[in-house]
Structures are given as structure tokens and as C-alpha cells.
Write a structure and sequence with these properties.
This protein is α+β, with helices and mostly antiparallel strands. The protein contains 4 helices and 5 strands; from the N terminus they run H-E-E-E-E-E-H-H-H. It has one domain (about 55-199). The protein has helices spanning about 5-40, 135-150, 165-175, 190-199, and strands at about 60-70, 80-85, 95, 110-115, 125-130. The protein has a 5-stranded antiparallel sheet with strand order 4-3-2-1-5. The N and C termini lie far apart (about 60 Å). Residues about 40-45 have low confidence and may be disordered.
Length: about 200
């Protein structure tokens, strides 16, 4: 083996060692953050006191929320969902996509009575849209129709989509009157825009 070959092998080896060290330095903090998220996530699944309580208002309410995604994904992305309370209703109905349902063969699109502004596995919900009274009354049937026509109720792909943000993007495209602007970190919203416009 020539001296040049020996030096090249040493450079390659040294480069790989450096890459491994850097990878460990990046991955360990992420794992650590994910673990710390995991310890407190399930303890905060109650209301953030943003939505009006049903017993305190007879008016219709339509809200859209975003919260940091579960675990390490929350560093980069948010989860979005829709909450609706018709006139005089005693509870809110939430509309969102749960990717983990796919593993059990259940629909990923979940419509159920729930706390509208609950913490998302420990992350604070942020209000993206808030319509009440007559405005909400006009928008609710359109949003419900858009939810029923969502073309991927049984499909979920973390990236690029369809995912929870693709669902919310679909509703916003079907009901432009919502004037909904999803945040940059709503990964999957652009997938829906591209596919929707392509049809």
C-alpha cells in the first residue's frame, strides 16, 4: 500500500468519525427533548380556556387551532384541527386527523365531541381562526360539507402528506371564506394545495 493510499484511508476514517460524533451531538439532545416531552405530555390534556364554554354562550362558534406536534416533531411542525359548536349545542365537535389510527386500520379522520382547545400532548393550542354568532352560523354548514368530502379519510403520510395539516388545508380550500392562513410549520398544507389545484 502506498503512502498516498494510507493517507486517504486515514482521511476517510477520520471523516466518518467526525460525522458520527456530530450525529451523536445532534441526535442526543433531540432524544432528550422527546423524552422530556413524553414525561409531561399526557398530563396536560385539558382545556387551555380559549374557547367559550357551551353553557356560557348559546351562539354558534367555529374555531381553528394549531399546537406543536407530538414529541421531537414539535421542534419543526404543528398539528391543526377544527372545533365547532352549533347554536345552543351543549358540547363542541372536533375535526382532525390522527395518523396513529392508520396502524389499527381505523379511519384517520376523526369527528367527535371533545374539548375544543385542549392541550396537544402538553403543547399550548394557538387560535388560528375564531368565528362566532352569525358568521359562524354561515360557515359551519360549509365546513361540515368540506369535512365530509375530504378525499383521504383513511390515508396518512407524515411527510409530505396527506396528514393532519393537509386535512385543515383541504377545508380552507373548500371554504375560502374562512380566510385561513396556516402557519409555515403546518407541514403537509402545501401537499394538499398542490394536489387540490392539480385536479
Amino acid at each position: 500500500m502506498t503512502k498516498e493510499n494510507s493517507q486517504n484511508k486515514w482521511l476517510i476514517r477520520r471523516t466518518w468519525i467526525l460525522i458520527c460524533v456530530l450525529a451523536i451531538m445532534i441526535v442526543l439532545p433531540i432524544i432528550s427533548m422527546a423524552i422530556s416531552f413524553g414525561k409531561s405530555d399526557f398530563n396536560k390534556r385539558h382545556s387551555a380556556n380559549i374557547a367559550p364554554l357551551p353553557e356560557q354562550t348559546q351562539d354558534a362558534v367555529l374555531q381553528v387551532y394549531a399546537a406543536d406536534a407530538y414529541g421531537w416533531r414539535g421542534i419543526f411542525a404543528v398539528h391543526t384541527w377544527i372545533a365547532i359548536k352549533p347554536v345552543g349545542a351543549s358540547a363542541y365537535t372536533t375535526y382532525q386527523v390522527f395518523g396513529w389510527n392508520q396502524r389499527n386500520g381505523r379511519p384517520v379522520l376523526v369527528v367527535k365531541e371533545d374539548i375544543p382547545d385542549r392541550y396537544w400532548f402538553g403543547s399550548d393550542p394557538k387560535l388560528l381562526a375564531d368565528y362566532r354568532g352569525e358568521q359562524a352560523l354561515q360557515l359551519i354548514p360549509k365546513v361540515e360539507k368540506a369535512v365530509k368530502s375530504y378525499p383521504f379519510p383513511n390515508e396518512y403520510t407524515l411527510w409530505p402528506g396527506p396528514n393532519s395539516n393537509s386535512f385543515t388545508a383541504w377545508v380552507s380550500l373548500e371554504v375560502p371564506e374562512l380566510g385561513l392562513k396556516l402557519p409555515f410549520s403546518a407541514i403537509g398544507k402545501d401537499w394538499m394545495v398542490r394536489n387540490y389545484k392539480a385536479e
